[in-house]
Amino acid sequence: MLVARLRWLHRVWRYRFYVDPAGIAWIRRNVARGQYAIDIGAHKGGYTYWLARAVGPAGRVVAAEPQANLASRLADLTQRMPQVTVHNVAVSDANGPAEIVLRSSGSSHGASLTGWPDGDPGIRVPVMRSTLRELMATSGLSRVDFIKCDIEGHELRVLRSCGEIFERDRPVLFCECEERHRQDEDGGVQGLVHTMAPHRYRIRFFFGRELLDVDRFDAAKHQVVGQRAYGNNFLLEPMP
Q: Which among 237, 230, 235, 220 is positioned nearest to 18, based on CA atoms?
């Protein structure tokens, strides 16, 4: 377990300084002690760790991960963080059984409820779906202050089902959105803007160490696969 924990700590610090330095820095500066956060698509805990550090012992972090082996491992690794609760569920717009699609290569890098746009048939694995509202109820959360959402193209389905939560709690959202995962005409970044427009959120995206307004987004410039700077993480902050 010691070796596993050391490897995990190496991973989370790599996230801070290499994978997403700007996003992690924003979380460390702005997520406050005592707040309640939800990590949708927690994977191996690269963000879960920093959210737990930010909210402190008086806060809560609910991490949802659909891959059972990763959820179990993350639960073990966060045993010393009592503010963290890990659930093996796929957050979606409905409750009940479903299938996630893993990569055919066996990589745990991603798990999708919608399939892979590059044509990879993948490996189908049974999973339980949960709405955000149900996840909050199961976890005993009366509110949510910050939501991180990275679920391989299924993000808009979740956001479109959360209007009541956005209006009631006004959480900050840290959401992945990629044009290559677009599922329909109202998908991608355009779909994100349309989905959140009724809820009065300011939308910006991280590009390198910059935080740019969404109206400057250009997929041909900001989402080039293989380019060091890649603008797939969007910050949504509630406006009055």
A: 230
Architecture per CATH, domain 2-88+143-238, reads as: 3-Layer(aba) Sandwich (3.40)
Q: Could you give the CA distance from residue 33 to residue 58 in angstroms, rounded to a whole number?
A: 7
Q: Cα–Cα distance between 167 and 78 in angstroms, integer? A: 31
- The predicted structure's pLDDT at residue 216: 98
The torsion angles phi and psi of 16, rounded to 5 degrees, stand at: -65, -40
Q: Which residues of the chain have pLDDT under 70?
A: 106-108, 183-185
- Which string of DSSP letters, residue by residue, matches the chain? -HHHHHHHHHHHHHIIIIISHHHHHHHHHHSPTT-EEEEET-TTSTTHHHHHHHH-TTSEEEEE-SSHHHHHHHHHHTTT-TTEEEE--EE-SS-EEEEEEE-TT---S-EESS--TT----EEEEEEEE-HHHHHHHHT-S--SEEEE--TT-HHHHHTT-HHHHHHH--EEEEE--GGG--STT-HHHHHHHHHGGG-EEEEEEETTEEEEGGG--HHHH--TT-SS---EEEEEE--
The pLDDT assigned to 106 comes to 63
Residues near 169 by beta carbon (within 8 Å), at least 6 away in sequence = 143, 144, 145
Count, residues in the chain:
240
pLDDT, position 60: 99
pLDDT at 108: 60
